[in-house]
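Q: My labmate handed me this sequence with no annotations at all. I'd like to see what the chain might look like in three dimensions before we decide whether it's worth expressing. Could you predict it?
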Amino acid sequence: MKITDVIFALIFGRVIGFLIGDFLREWNINIGLYWGLVIWLAFPIISLFCLWVAFLLGRKLLFVFQGAKFFLVGAAATVVDLKLFELLFWFFPIVVLAKGMSFIISTFLKYWGNKYWAFGKHEKEDMHKEIIQFFFITAIGLLIDITCFYYIAEILGPQFSFPDAIWLKISVIIAAIAAASWNFLGYKFFVFKK
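A: Here is what I predict for the chain of 194 residues:
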């Protein structure tokens, strides 16, 4: 594993921990200083450990290590997507518009993280073609993301007695996972193939 892998795993683990802490606050669960510190430290370490395991498995199956990096990039981008969605929804109270805008902006983070870190493609030739392919795959991912989000948030509605604010966040995350599955396959086999 490279030092950049360690650094990114720790950073992205911290970002995921931030999301967990945010959820707990939304559910009015006071985690206190001790558990806040545990979350602050545990998620980066867990992230690094999981990436190390994926690195070991990736010696035989490269897609495992790429998938772990893709997951970390996607998780960090999902936090950006979620927080940006909340901010944009405050300015533009049209759910689908705010969600579409947050998805597109977080996609820029995903592009650079996936190109240079997850799939390690540093070549510059045919970059215009690569960007077009990336945005084609991402546009389909956007449709999957918005469709899943709309179905879960608006048609299905809050389930299991979750408050509306929590259900909205859960809807964003589920939609992001559905789009991420499509994106990983598209990026690996179509955009960043070597």
